[in-house]
């Protein structure tokens, strides 16, 4: 008789663990879809509109007159508006030998993947690559 109750409790534990595992998977998916996916879409929108393919490579790239640089990182923050993010990336200018020169330079954008807009923000001394290329 004890073996039957042990078996029943083992089956109940297995079912509860399976349900807990399933709940964890569903929760992770919901978090991804509601919080992470819009941020990924915002970064992709900036890449499409402001960074041509050759600039996206994380190794040394050439940019017309500006010289070489390395894309160092992305940052994304939520704003007070729903679905609107501040997306920034930083680059480090490199000399002809591929060595870092100067401080990193940042570029900021106000982005809404839902509405499809991606506007550059130009604080003080910062410019976007497109604005400096033609000058």
Quick take:
The protein has three helices and five strands. With 135 residues, the chain is α+β, with helices and mostly antiparallel strands.
Task: Please write out the topology.
Blueprint: H1 2-50, H2 53-56, E1 61-63, E2 67-78, E3 85-94, E4 105-112, E5 117-121, H3 129-133
List keywords for this structure.
single chain, 135 residues, alpha+beta, 5 strands, 28% strand, disordered C terminus
Question: What would your notes on this structure say?
Answer:
The structure is a single chain. Residues 58-62 and 127-135 have low confidence and may be disordered. It is built from three helices and five strands. It is an alpha+beta fold and 135 residues long. It has one domain (2-133). 43% of the residues lie in helices and 28% in strands.
| Gap from first CA to last CA | 87 Å
Note the beta-strand portion. Answer: 25-35%
Number of strands: 5
Main sheet: strands, sense, barrel? 5 strands, antiparallel
> How much is the average pLDDT?
77
